[in-house]
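Reading a protein record of the kind used here takes little practice once its layout is understood. An example of such a record is reproduced below.
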Amino acid sequence: MPDMKDFNAGNNGWTELIAKMQETELKQLPENMEFYDRYKLSENFYARMQRLCALERQKVRHARIRGITAAAAALVFYIAASHPYQVASCSHEVMTRFKNYTIFRFDEDDRMRAVLKYEPAYVPSGYKVSVDDAGSMQYSDGRGGVLLFDYMSANASITVDHKSRDFSVLKQEDGRFFYCYEAVMEDEDSVMIWLSQDENTVFKLQGRLSKEEMLKTAQGVRMTEKDS
């Protein structure tokens, strides 16, 4: 073994000894696969992480639902305050208000139903039928004006963009309610939603008409025959 006195002098014996010691220590290190097997994460760890991630996603969904529910509750409170008779007689109605749109669904029963054929008995002057399909009709006035009339089962969902539209509820003598979204801008469409008297069919009327003309057209909707 080299003498310690020769260490500072850079004796080659010391250099070789240190190199062998480092080589011995390196040989004692585990192989790559041994490292992998020793320190790899267990399946149980991955399962726990997946559960934690699922819980976090669920918390986010619940927060969104609470926000939607709060908005819907605020809307119902507003309607109950201004139209108390509506809440009392139409408790099955569902109006879910989101930031930019409202979803209507009047019946939660998902069973298939036969849809009867309807059409307006009155349309504003100059409007003529341009499209007549099952569940949908389109009227044009020849000057770019278009009136859309759609109808479907009451358990269907209808989405209305309520941006730049004034909302009001109109109660009729027959007890029905007409939900009107009147356009604020002249170049935007107004929208009206209502139920048939038997509450099996929901209607949607859309066009650049005044609230009065929308209501007059909606009141004149009549059943013609059963769809095939």
Q: What stands out?
A: The longest helix spans residues 43-82. The CA atoms of residues 133 and 150 lie 9 Å apart.
